[in-house]
């Protein structure tokens, strides 16, 4: 069914005109979604973020840009290798290339890069074989301990899904109060006519599932462990 016919059918059932140009006004009397956590400054958001992470089985490390390589090495020592990483220029910008290409391989720890030059099967096989999936987050949400990931070419979402441990690098300046502000930032990109990534993923720590008896099971649908590395000077 064509779009116009589909919308016309819906409109007729709802006894209203078809409107595809003017957005309906949302003049709510109360807007708690825009007020919760917003009085906090960046340092206070970090405190709230860390507190929430204790509830979602996620470790938080604080470091600086200069010491990021050492922090990642500590995570590798904790979880073991191999690593699966995105083909992301930020790894080079944050001086992680020597760690990936020289230091870790010298320790017999492989680093797999998700790449469009590889087949789909190769990328998934490497992500599945990795012990750690390491990515950069776009935003982090204090209320829920969530990181927002942009999946695109060279940044397959399987990197954060298939390995045993999920590790996200978070510039502290990217901390936001809650999902409301992240959605607003994404909408601003749309309004500017910018292309959006293939997928926008909201990840809150390791995979958590609960059965009918309310027993929590971790790692059924994704990583068993998670660590966030917060860069306090970025």
TrEMBL record:
It comes from the Bacteria. InterPro entries: FTHF_cligase-like_sf, LUD_dom, NagB/RpiA_transferase-like. SUPFAM superfamilies: NagB/RpiA/CoA transferase-like (SSF100950). Residues 49-231 form the LUD domain. PANTHER family: LACTATE UTILIZATION PROTEIN C. This is Lactate utilization protein C.
């Amino acid at each position: 069914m064509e779009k116009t016919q589909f919308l016309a059918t819906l409109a007729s059932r709802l006894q209203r005109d078809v409107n595809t140009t003017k957005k309906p006004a949302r003049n709510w009397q109360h807007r708690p979604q825009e007020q919760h956590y917003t009085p906090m400054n960046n340092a206070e958001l970090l405190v709230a973020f860390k507190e929430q992470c204790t509830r979602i089985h996620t470790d938080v490390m604080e470091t600086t840009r200069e010491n990021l390589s050492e922090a990642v090495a500590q995570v590798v020592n904790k979880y073991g290798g191999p690593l699966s990483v995105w083909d992301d220029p930020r790894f080079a910008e944050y001086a992680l290339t020597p760690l990936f290409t020289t230091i870790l391989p010298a320790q017999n720890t492989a680093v797999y890069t998700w790449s469009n030059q590889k087949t789909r099967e190769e990328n998934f096989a490497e992500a599945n074989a990795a012990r750690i999936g390491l990515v950069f987050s776009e935003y982090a949400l204090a209320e829920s301990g969530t990181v927002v990931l942009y999946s695109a070419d060279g940044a397959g979402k399987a990197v954060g899904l298939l390995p045993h441990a999920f590790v996200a690098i978070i510039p502290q300046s990217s901390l936001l109060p809650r999902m409301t502000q992240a959605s607003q930032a994404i909408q601003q990109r749309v309004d500017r006519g910018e292309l959006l990534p293939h997928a926008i993923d909201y990840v809150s720590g390791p995979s958590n599932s609960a059965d009918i008896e309310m027993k929590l099971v971790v790692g059924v649908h994704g990583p068993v462990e998670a660590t966030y590395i917060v860069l306090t000077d970025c």
